[in-house]
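Hey,
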Amino acid sequence: MKKLLMLCIGLASSCYILAQDLSDALRYSMDEIQGTARFRAMSGAFGALGGDMSGININPAGSAIFNNSYGSVTIGFSTRNNDIDYFNGLTSSSDSNFDLNQLGATFVFVNRDENSPWKKFTLSAAYDKSADFDDDWVARGVNPNNTIANYFLLNAEGKRLDEISALSGETLSQAYSEIGSLYGYGHQQAFLGYEGFIIDPVDNTDENTGYTSNIDLNGTDFDQEYVYSSSGYNGKLAFNFATSYNNKLYLGLNLNTHFINYDRTTIFNESNSNTNSTVTNVGFDNDLKTTGSGFSFQLGGIAKITEEFRVGLSYNSPTWYRISEETTQLLATTRIENGSNVNQIINPNVINIFPEYKLRTPSKLTGSLAYVFGKQGLLSFDYSIKDYSNAKFRPTSDSYFASLNREVSNTLDTSNSYRIGGEYRYKQLSFRGGYRFEESPYKDDNFYGDLTGYSLGLGYNFGNLNLDIAFSQAERDINHQLYTTGLTDSASIQSKFTDVILTLGFRI
């Protein structure tokens, strides 16, 4: 009868089994086209230029700048260096990968009717990596006054004991799975803390809703280690149509499909020697696997004010994602019992499969200027604006998502980005450089700092074939919060991103 009652309650509460947070909105809203070597060498300042396969991702009108059908393939070697500070415990890490950054082609069709002002149109298809999620680092330090016990305690407060503990005859795996299905992720966290002896009920009754910690909350010097490892990418496949009007006005449309693959593992270890703590060691492992797909569109135009001076304007719609997530967890504790150490391992060996949810990322508007010095070179400038507070989890009628959307709106802000690039040509050689600056998406940029970067590159034109290489480097400071509740302390991370990109371009 009790299980039947729990099932009925669980069906009525199914919307609460979600585990998304603000970081998901930010992760999938930020895009940084890896792009061709020419695009990267000029820091992506291509909104008024076109004539580059990755430039089409900034302004879809850019494909109509091509005079001939064209294709390119790009590979890149990327390195991320992190310097981590956690309560004056200093560590560093480096992670590198080699990958396909871009692949695409544009087909140019010339209008044979010389009297028509529509001189040509183009069809294109291109793949670009929008974001690289590969990252590995370790934070170590002695936390003076906060413990992982607060995470489990706050997740348990207000929840009935019979909702966070195993029923008679249930295994830990069965209980963990059923609690997740009926009550949700927060109840599972409380279950782990209870079964791991980190927390105890005030009263050992089903109706109890108050809990105490077996780790001294007033203790000091909690020795903590947090291991973070993530992998995956966000990719975009763009189908483009563009046209040229009197070779003065260029208009374009992109229809984009997006796909997400993201895996993350965190391993947390804590030890303490406080007199009033009966639990002295905690190990807490979490794995997340995310897959998703989405759709967006882009509209853009480029106008030649004079033969040398160009302006561009483009609009990136929101991306409408459908995202699925899976998680697994493990908790290990050591407690002192009758003068001896007792090890406890809670390994449910259960995969939490969460219901698919929807995320709408913010739109972006880009204005661009460019000046072309004939065949000698060019200068280009892009300005973009993106309001991250407009990101929305859906359905908005869900109370959890409504609360999360309020947090997004109150925490995130409008971000402006500036990119400037230049190119100088000498015979078949091209020398390139660029600079970019992107504001923090947070209202408080102490959480997530501004990004600054520069780039350099070379290109050689063989006629029907060109070879380009670029070097780019960018820096950003991030405060990574360990958990969303309880142990909310942050590791300060200074990240430096270095890329070497090689592109082979060819006429078709």
